[in-house]
Amino acid sequence: METKRHHSDYANHRIVEWKYNAKEGQIIAGGNGRGNRTDQLNTPTDVIVDQQNHSIIIADFGNKRVVQWLNQNQHILIDNIRCWGLAMDKHEFLYVSDFEKNAVIRWKMGEYNNEGIVVAGGNGHGNQLNQFYAPTFMFVDKDQSVYVSDANHHRVMKWEKDAKEGKIVAGGNDKGRNLNQLSGSHGVIVGHFGHIYVVDTWNYRVMRWCEGKEEGEVVVGGNRKGNQSNQLNNPMGLSSDDEGNLYVVDSENHRIQKFEIIL
Questions:
Q1: Under CATH, to which class is 1-79 assigned?
Q2: What stretches of residues are NHL repeats (predicted)?
Q3: Of the chain's two ends, which shows fewer C-beta atoms within 10 Å, N or C?
């Protein structure tokens, strides 16, 4: 069982660690006001943990940089990038979604003195299969396929390793609330059985899609906007644990909700 989780508290410009069953969290990065000093953050959008050295890597969106925090020491890894989402694969590659360049760029961990390699998008903004318009969160599987939430096109794209274009695996049928549609796709993960879970932000729900299917199914929310336990209000981020539970960043309700998923 995982004992703690890390969340980017973007409006408070900090990263908070919550231990299992804790009544309050602990600030482990930022929390010194909004700013661009090395001990400050500006609207952090995503955070991952480097299990090799237990540092945390943060998408410091407002400062256009990716930063690493280790034992309260800060280090800028990548500068001048409008980073939104982060992911890491088992081969020690770091993936960053560049919101302005409409691309996902990959770096070898520890080797950031280069421009990185574009592994998805990077062909201007548009709705072609080789383009994005505001890529946000992403997930990388064991085969180094990259699943990207293409927020303004209301779809999730899968780019296999070395592909020249992606394929639509969720949404992509214009903005809407039907089961074959999304409205502002954000957090995305792929489960143990290959199911694709995506936060459907403006429909206030989380959808599950099987690759190749024409439509998905609602697994969380979908009961209109609200603050009840079966409701969401502008959900954004998404993660899971080893037991298959989903953790949804329910942003406008200022809470993290945990849901047990029935397969």
A1: mainly beta
A2: 231-262
A3: N
